[in-house]
Design brief:
alpha+beta, 3 domains, 484 residues, 19% strand, three-stranded antiparallel sheet, 15 helices
Length: 484
């Protein structure tokens, strides 16, 4: 039986974090009442003229430089003509034959692999977003909110070089992280500010000719992207093996049934009747402008991850998790700057801190402003563990008491009397009390049953309410158990 391979290309739409829209002064902020952020230009009134937002161009240049594109010093605006309720003008202002960025690549690495794979890009172009159709099942009506009309977008188009849903997910996660580091897009997939269309086809292994593709529209979660790709690969493979033909079409992902459904036949470029936008001049970007933006680029995820490995001697996995979000990486470095125990800080950030962040969905924000525990508090907590004041187990209890307040870890420990028992004489007395009358269990330990040590430690911790210094307890216990 012939084996098939998938060929996947992704078109990412990233809404830009500008205060106003791309061609008018209306607010681009998400969440306003329906149709509040609109003007005659947004809703396609006759006689209005677009005026380009300079920051949109700057964000386009910045993004292109960050992902290794060639910045075109001259690009051009075009009209993409189609008719749909969410597009009041009947056309979209976009870039077609002369986009602002060409080429580029995004490097990804799948879990368990030790080498990056470079995913090539075709282009990045700027355009305006459309409105949003809202289908109300209760009233059997469709409504349109035009607030999103004119919100600036970057469309980032990959080459059809991805081969699996895992690669697609890794590519999207890396791309979103880069955009967030650049602070050009908040990456909020639930709000639709980072969404993608997936073009999927299959072909026999070893073939070079592309198969007929289906496009899955408006996927707005990593899970949806990965599930939709897997489903579509399976659907197309079954169809070809059954002797059926694949139709070039646009499909939708049904999240409830986890299937793709046919939406319409896939348009080609000529269906949109592109022509140059008559109301906007070609865009000229100077070499000086490009150089200035290049000099202002921040440290990006891959660079920061490599630095975390070399400077803080963290495992590559820790560095990758910590640098996936700029605000998390900043938080880690703030804590390490106060108490330099990078591995312990890393463990706490990746464990307890991110657990709370995820539970509260704080990671939906571009920047986490209200951390449940401040970097200073976390550093102070780890310092108390390192100097023997409290154990790691007690520290988790203290962490919960630090949530959403400005108390210091030391004050919580003092208030609750949680200081670790580290007095040798006191611990020796407790150990002797626990061992008294346990001759049979002591004999088992001396006969080679090492796990009895854990039993005794547990009894001692129970007696001290978890406050005994575990290192000292183990030392004293071993000394007692090995003596007559």
């Amino acid at each position: 039986m012939t084996d098939f391979e998938a060929v996947i290309g992704l078109e990412v739409h990233a809404e830009l974090l500008t205060a106003s829209k791309i061609f008018c002064g209306c607010s681009a902020k998400f969440g306003a009442a329906p149709n509040e952020n609109t003007c005659p230009l947004c809703i396609g009134m006759p006689g209005v003229l677009p005026v380009l937002n300079r920051q949109v161009v700057e964000f386009g240049i910045k993004t292109g430089l960050a992902i290794h594109c060639e910045i075109q010093q001259r690009s051009r605006w075009s009209r993409k003509n189609y008719f749909y309720p969410d597009l009041p003008k009947g056309y979209q202002i976009t870039q077609y034959d002369l986009p602002i960025c060409l080429g580029g690549h995004v490097d990804i690495r799948l879990e368990g692999e030790d080498q990056d794979r470079s995913i090539p890009l075709t282009r990045i172009h700027m355009e305006e977003d459309t409105g949003k159709n809202i289908h109300d099942a209760h009233t059997d009506a469709s409504l349109v909110d035009y607030n999103r009309c004119g919100v600036p977008l970057l469309e980032i188009v990959s080459e059809p070089d991805l081969r699996s849903s895992a690669e697609a997910g890794a590519y999207l996660r890396k791309l979103r992280a880069i955009l967030q580091y650049l602070q050009v897009c908040d990456g909020n997939m639930e709000e639709g500010s980072f969404r993608c269309d997936a073009n999927i086809s299959i072909r026999p292994q070893g073939a070079t000719e592309l198969g007929t593709k289906a496009e899955i529209k408006n996927l707005n979660s990593f899970r949806s992207v990965e599930r939709a790709i897997d489903y579509e690969i399976e659907r197309q493979t079954k169809a070809i093996r059954a002797g059926e033909s694949i139709v070039q079409e646009t499909r939708l992902w049904d999240t409830d049934r986890e299937v793709t459904r046919s939406m319409r036949s896939k348009e080609s470029a000529h269906d949109y009747r592109y022509f140059s936008e008559p109301d906007l001049l070609p865009l000229d970007v100077s070499a000086d402008w490009i150089e200035r933006v290049k000099g202002e680029l921040p440290e990006l995820p891959d660079e920061r991850s490599a630095r975390f490995v070399s400077e803080y001697e963290l495992p590559a996995y820790d560095a990758e998790v910590l640098t996936a979000r700029k605000d998390v990486a900043d938080y880690f470095e703030a804590a390490v700057g106060i108490h330099r125990n990078p591995k312990a800080v890393s463990n706490w950030v990746m464990g307890e801190v991110l657990r709370i962040v995820n539970d509260r969905k704080l990671d939906q924000e571009l920047v986490i402003e209200a951390w449940p525990v401040s970097a200073q508090q976390l550093a102070g907590l780890i310092a108390l563990i390192d100097d023997g004041t409290i154990s790691g187990k007690i520290a988790k209890s203290v962490f919960e008491d630090l949530l959403d307040n400005d108390k210091s870890p030391a004050s919580v420990v003092e208030e609750k009397g949680l200081s670790q028992v580290s007095d040798s004489a006191e611990l020796e007395s407790i150990v002797d009390g626990v061992l008294a009358g346990q001759d049979d269990k002591i004999a088992e330990y001396r006969a080679g049953k090492e796990k009895m040590l854990g039993f005794f430690v547990g009894q001692i911790m129970k007696k001290t309410q978890g406050k005994a210094n575990p290192k000292l307890v183990n030392e004293i216990l071993r000394k007692r158990l090995q003596s007559n």
